[in-house]
Write a structure and sequence with these properties.
Layout lengths: L1 H23 L5 E9 L2 E8 L2 H5 L4 H13 L5 E7 L7 H13 L4 H14 L2 E10 L7 E8 L6 H6 E10 L2 E11 L19 E3 L6 E3 L2 H33 L1
Parallel strand pairs: 2-3
Antiparallel strand pairs: 1-2, 4-5, 4-7, 6-7, 8-9
Length: about 250
């Protein structure tokens, strides 16, 4: 059970680390972190929309973050790298944080939802689904679900091309949850591939009048195929006759 406990402990620590990074570098547009252990230490790749905020002036932000990860989370010799996201509008975590910040500033939840939905679809998403739940309009909790485009919800495609994330917002009315699911076109792999049929090669024949090579006409092709079929049938008849003669000799 010790190995199982170690795995559970590592996963729990990784969850706490990602929650800390989400809150610590929220202003930098944090998307996700890739953590891998190496013989020399621990590599941490931070995917953000604004790397300058994470790096800080003369690398001060990176140094503070490195010390924090080493002391509080026990990472061995952490090596942090910052990766800029090409299309932040297609990252569910980034859009969850943006929508949460809009709602925190007092924007109506439905207006924030429609704005987020429009931004995601205009930047090339195949489909998106936004679910917002909590005390939206009164004391009783409720939820709303808004969908646009094509979004697989089950099966292999849903696991491959759909990314999702969840964020929570504290409002005077209570806690509101935001869940965004985005389907990306570049991850879609079609099950069938349409291949063009290669054109048949036209047979070259010698012209009787000019003596030069030319393409065979349709009438000549039909006549040639008919003659070939007749020749095949004659060969089959000869084979049958020889077989009958051999059987007669044996009798």
């Amino acid at each position: 059970m010790s190995s199982v406990k170690n795995v559970i402990k590592d996963n729990y620590n990784m969850m706490l680390l990602k929650d800390y990074l989400r809150a610590a570098i929220k202003e930098a547009g944090f998307s996700h972190a890739e953590i891998s252990k190496t013989p020399t230490g621990t590599r941490v790749a931070l995917h953000v929309t604004r790397p300058g905020i994470v790096i800080g002036r003369k690398g001060s932000g990176i140094r503070e973050l490195t010390d924090k990860l080493a002391t509080d989370f026990g990472l061995k010799n952490p090596q942090i790298s910052v990766v800029e996201i090409d299309k932040p509008e297609l990252s569910p975590s980034v859009m969850c944080n943006r929508m949460a910040s809009h709602i925190e500033r007092g924007t109506a939840f439905r207006r924030a939802t429609m704005w987020t939905l429009k931004q995601i679809m205009e930047n090339g998403a195949m489909g998106v689904q936004i679910t917002i739940s909590g005390k939206l309009r009164g004391d009783r909790s409720a939820f709303e679900k808004h969908t646009a485009g094509i979004l697989p919800r089950a099966g292999h495609h849903a696991e491959v091309i759909v990314d999702e994330d969840i964020a929570h917002v504290k409002t005077p009315m209570g806690l509101i949850g935001i869940r965004i699911r985005i389907a990306r076109k570049e991850k879609f792999v079609p099950e069938f591939e349409l291949k063009t049929v290669k054109p048949k090669k036209v047979k070259q024949v010698k012209d009787a009048d000019t003596g030069k090579m030319r393409d065979e006409t349709e009438a000549e092709r039909k006549a040639r195929t008919e003659s070939e079929q007749i020749a095949l049938e004659e060969e089959k008849m000869k084979e049958l006759e020889t077989l009958e003669e051999e059987e007669a000799k044996l009798k």
